[in-house]
Design goal:
single chain, 412 residues, alpha/beta, 5-stranded parallel beta sheet, globular, binds S-adenosylmethionine, SAM-dependent_MTases_sf
Amino acid sequence: MEAQHLQVTSGLSFAEPEVDALLKHSVRTQLESLLTQKLTVEQRVQQLQQSFVDATTLVLSDTETQHQVLVKAFDAMYDQAVQSMALAGLSQALLTRQYVSASGLIMSPHNCKHTIKDVYRIKGYARGIDQAIQSKLKHVSSITVLYPACGPFAPLLLPLLSYYKDSQKFTGQQIQVILADVHPGAILALTQLVKDLQLDEYILCIEEVDATEYKPKESIDLLVLEAMQHGFTKEGQLSIAKHLVQFLKIDGWMIPQNISVRGMMVIGETEFNQQWKEVEYSHSLNTDTDAQRDRVELGELMSINKSTLLNMQELELQDGVKVIQASQVTLPVDVDDMDKRILAVYAHIDTFAQEGVGQYDSGITHPRPDMTFYIDTKPRDVEHTHFVANSGDTVQFYYQLTGLPGFVPVKV
Ligand SMILES: C[S@@+](CC[C@H](N)C(=O)[O-])C[C@H]1O[C@@H](n2cnc3c(N)ncnc32)[C@H](O)[C@@H]1O
């Protein structure tokens, strides 16, 4: 029985500190469900695998699936993945340790586990990756895929690989995946999940490394990366992509193929509140025409793709901080209410071919208000971190590659 297996392998009862920590961190319900369902190991693993196959089957289908059906399938996959994580035996310290590295936030496995429920992000990536793999395998017999910063569940690939295995679409001889993450807790959970999903044949190796320093031995056909947060801040997507792009084969592809980061001036109430009053959930298909028309777009601040990454020049400032030059924007002059607007930065992700993740489809593409950027007005308390400019001014944006990555505007 799985419940017995849990107690035997962990060697702990519920009163012990390690398990108490898990109980405190919402894994409790999953453990309880394991105990009450009295599943055998085989039954649990079977349910886990099925949930991964089901969610992927829905997102790869060309028939539109209702939002609620997708959410239910992804919740089921999440529940099963968390059960697997509960069996990986992470201590409280490993489960919750979160810190800032030189290139960005390293999120704890506890906080990362939710990304497997981010339906439209996974849909955009899985559909893109599926097409990229199909295209590659038309010309070669096997490919190597690198997925750095993959987190405890590697949700952009493990569901897809489960689907390939179940449908026998592609084998482990055709696809070899390198999973990499710097967090030892993520590695433990990942190792357990790969074992539970019985995907070993597809996994070349699982590496515990900082992706900004990793040098894979193999040359890479597909580099799958998602280490970003809204407004293209906080996490190290750019530093990781910039370092690893050099290990792609000449004809290798990055997924996403392009990230376009854009700026706009919005009335906060219209953009973030009124726009969503009447809709069931936020998604690029549910945006409101009037709210969209009310935006003042500033244009693209930066585009991140294989070619821009290979040509990107770093500028090192006196204190050793590295920045990348982004776009220059001239602030429009004909906007009456500019002094009431705030800057919002958002991303549009093209994963591959026609697939992508649009604004509001996911937390990572959600516009992020920047409350330090003022045009035609001054904040009550001017702090040195505030940027103050006037309509008609030209602003040069830079992107800082620090532990807190993000855009820095400078008046030209
Ligand atoms: C939000 S989680 C998982 C994101 C995952 N790519 C997904 O698709 O859901 C972020 C993970 O990225 C890892 N990470 C962040 N920066 C990293 C770096 N420089 N090297 C390796 N792993 C990194 C963290 O340890 C964490 O497990």
